[in-house]
Amino acid sequence: MIGRRTLFGAATASVALASVLNTEAAEAAVRAAARAAPAPGDVELRGADGRLERLGTLDLESQQDFTLGFRLMHSKKIRESSFKSFDRVLARNGMDPTTPISRQELIKLVENEPTINIAARTWLANQQVTWKTLQDYFHANADVYLSEMEAADRSGPGTLELNPKMLIPDYARHEIHIQPGGYVGDPFAGHIYHYGTNSFYISVIGHNEQDQVHKRTAERLPIPEDGKVRRILDMGCGSGQMTVALKERFPDAEVWGIDVGGPMVRYAHMRARDLGIGANFAQRLAEDTKFPDGYFDLVTSYIMHHELPADVTRKVIAEAQRVTRPGGVYYPVDFNSGGTKSLPRMMYGRWWDHRWNNEVWSFEYHAMDFTSEIGQRGFTIVKNAQAALPGFGVRHAIRA
Amino acid sequence: MSNPDTKRETFAAEAIPSDVKTSVFLGNPAVDNLVSCMIAMGTELWATKRRLKVIEAVMAKTGVTPEMIEKYAPTDQERADWERDRDRFIELTLGSLANAGTRGIGSDFPG
């Protein structure tokens, strides 16, 4: 493992080299050096593993390691057992597993099935422990981590805009994924979300501790036909991993990440700053970005829309249309949508995630044909485009 | 708002809490709670085991190898002390499995 501070000595030499050789490679070395240098006020009690700062105590790191391990086991064994139980229930009731049924019928069928419900209870308990251990730690050490954020608020690279008087819409106040405080209600929402979702990635998509998923996604995002990418907007940026990945792909572009959560953009800015990446973050709404008309060449979002009510999603698309320049690209990354009539077992899983993992708006999202909604609001949908995130929806749209 | 005890600006707002803590999946809230306790217990147990691994790794670097720990033969006194502690641990954690539950919540005192 090579920590960022270990790299610092070599990075200093690279800066010197860059000042002599004004080459592209040398400039890249300067950027690498900026990432390697510890930022003023940066708290790294236990160092860093690459670009991921290690959690503040060994116990907390181990607790997260357990919940990750349990989640992996759950996704392989317990869920499989639950699936088999589901099929047995359908067979016992003489039902065809390939014929859609209503969710009310589904719930009635499985509500007394022990295997299905132990899978539900253990998954939720594990999710609760994941969040609680993180929240307890950051609250117990609030002064240290608030001071770290305060130091970062006022420094760059990159900028931070906080709007404590902004009216937070009710739809954004829910504790999505049962994360305590949700995206807006905990001072450490960004910290908690970032570390808590690492186990989600490993069990569902793949390792993301070094932002691998965000970087691959950013690399695959299409650009305008004229090749000009001067300004980029990442809507609902959360902890800023996608915004950072975009700035890394387009180092000369002006890159913005906006989010409804003040603690989220605060963490996103601090982390980008610690990595030496000059992205801009602002606490703003995706449906009301405050940017001028046609300002951006590329507008994106990363799994944001399934956390929005359908009417807000439509407003966000309209806002994206307003701020994207003619010929610019709009590519919101999110799940496939347009299906609430899937097979009974999948339908139950989708409903359960909505109801008990507190994905409050995901059912509305899945009921909507998201791609078609984009096509109806001033964008041309590119056919046969590649998925920026394989397995997720393909929405390569060009502003008319 | 979920705030630590601080007067500093946190930029957090009021959240709408989920009702997950009132959910019942196993027919009896007590059973649900027991399962949640087991997950939390597992988390703590693994944190302890992982810390032991770190201690062993650090000790190995100072000359105490895992092999020395593995091959350590306790003295007679240590063996007796540890067995007593093992039995206490088992009684505490699993002893209630032997309880014969025959009396409902509304039952009178035994005559």
CATH topology of the domain at 160-168 and 212-399 in chain A: Rossmann fold
Encode the helix/strand succession of chain A as letters. Answer: HHEEHHHHEHHEHEHEEHEHHHEE
CATH superfamily of the domain at 160-168 and 212-399 in chain A: Vaccinia Virus protein VP39
Largest binding interface between chains: A-B, 52 and 36 residues
| Average residue pLDDT of chain A | 89
Query: Could you tell me the radius of gyration of chain B in angstroms?
Result: 24 Å
CATH class of the domain at 160-168 and 212-399 in chain A: Alpha Beta
Quote the average pLDDT of chain B: 88
The percent range for strand residues of chain A is: 5-15%
Provide the β-strand percentage band of chain B.
under 5%
Name the poorly predicted regions of chain B: none
Helix content of chain B: 40-55%
Instruction: Give the CA-based shape of chain A.
Output: globular
How helical, in percent, are the residues of chain A? 40-55%
Count of separate DSSP helical elements of chain A: 14
How many strand segments of chain B? 0
Strands of chain A, total number? 10
Largest sheet of chain A: 8 strands, mixed
Shape of chain B: flat
Please, could you describe this protein's structure?
The complex is a heterodimer of chains A (400) and B (111). With 400 residues, chain A is of the alpha/beta class. Among the domains of chain A are: 46 residues, no CATH class; 197 residues, Vaccinia Virus protein VP39 (Rossmann fold), CATH 3.40.50.150. In chain A, strands 3-6-5-4-7-8-10-9 form an 8-stranded mixed beta sheet. In chain A, α10 links the parallel β5 and β6. In chain A, α5 runs antiparallel to α7 and α6 packs across α10. Chain B is mostly helical and 111 residues long. Chain B has a domain of 67 residues. Helices cover 51% and strands 0% of the residues of chain B. Chain B has 3 helices and no strands. The longest helix of chain B is centred in the middle third of the chain and has 33 residues. At the A-B interface, α3, α5, α6 and α10 of A face α1 of B.
